[in-house]
Amino acid sequence: GNALLRRLVRIGVLDEGKMKLDYILGLKIEDFLERRLQTQVFKLGLAKSIHHARVLIRQRHIRVRKQVVKIPSFIVRLDSQKHIDFSLRSPYGGGRPGRVKRKNAKKGQGGAGGGEDEEED
């Protein structure tokens, strides 16, 4: 019983003040669904919708601490919640720019824009 209570508190489903087996019977499915990575990404404002959050996670744009997670049903622990962020390799997190941005940047360098930059130096 104690191991179950500690585990539920660690993942954030149960409050520390309610560490009794009686409170486990009062838990709802929504309590567990709130701890999913997909829901947490949406609630933190990293995604525009719950569906967008799922896509970002599956495309490896989201990390928890230093680990890139691609499973939307990943249960986020209470202590890991503040470490959810964009992956360092993701274009959203300051990594390599996406295909369209790279193409536009290359087009800008090849045209008159590249010549002006050289004159200023």
Keywords:
3 strands; three-stranded antiparallel beta sheet; Structural Genomics Hypothetical 15.5 Kd Protein In mrcA-pckA Intergenic Region, Chain A; disordered C terminus; mainly alpha; 121 residues; rRNA-binding; 7 helices
List the helices and strands and how they pair.
Elements: H1 2-11, H2 21-24, H3 29-33, H4 37-43, H5 50-58, E1 62-64, E2 67-68, E3 84-86, H6 99-110, H7 112-120
Antiparallel strand pairs: 1-2, 1-3
Helix pairs in contact: 4-5
- DSSP helix fraction: 40-55%
CATH topology of the largest domain: Structural Genomics Hypothetical 15.5 Kd Protein In mrcA-pckA Intergenic Region, Chain A
- How many strand units? 3
Overall number of structural domains: 2
Distance between the termini: 70 Å
Instruction: Give the name of the CATH superfamily of the largest domain.
Output: RNA-binding S4 domain
> Are there runs of 5+ residues with pLDDT below 50, and where?
113-121
What pattern of helices and strands is seen along the backbone?
Answer: HHHHHEEEHH
Large-scale geometry: elongated
The CATH top-level class label of the largest domain: Alpha Beta
| Helical run tally | 7
What value does the average pLDDT take?
88
Taken as a percent bin, the fraction of beta residues is 5-15%
Instruction: Decide which structural class fits the backbone.
Output: mainly alpha
What's the CATH architecture of the largest domain? Answer: Roll
InterPro entries: Ribosomal_uS4, Ribosomal_uS4_CS, Ribosomal_uS4_euk/arc, S4_RNA-bd, S4_RNA-bd_sf
Region (Disordered): 89-121
Pfam families: S4
GO molecular function, one term: rRNA binding
